[in-house]
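The methods section describes the discrete structure representation at length, but only in general terms. An entry of this sort, consisting of the sequence and the corresponding backbone structure tokens, reads as follows:
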Amino acid sequence: MPKTQLGSKLEIELDALVQKDLKITIRALKKVKIIAPKKSYARKIAEDFFEMATAYFNDALHFKEHNDLLHSVACVNYAHGWLDAGARLGLFDVAEDDQLFTLAE
């Protein structure tokens, strides 16, 4: 939805949320290390998860640049979801960071 169609208060709140989520996801993208062995099937899955996260993150940036904040916030959260799922499944080493990721014990 273009910026002009949102109420100004909602627009400000949504913009702040997008900014916050982009910063968090940038930190998560930098922290993720693929740990599956290079020749394993799990490596292909891990790479796919990381590629999906990166693609959704780039989409979030694109939508933000075009003032489409609703799609931007959706995409950045999908991006982080891919990273979170990969960390929880053990595809990524995230240095046991349970602030950026939902880790299971």
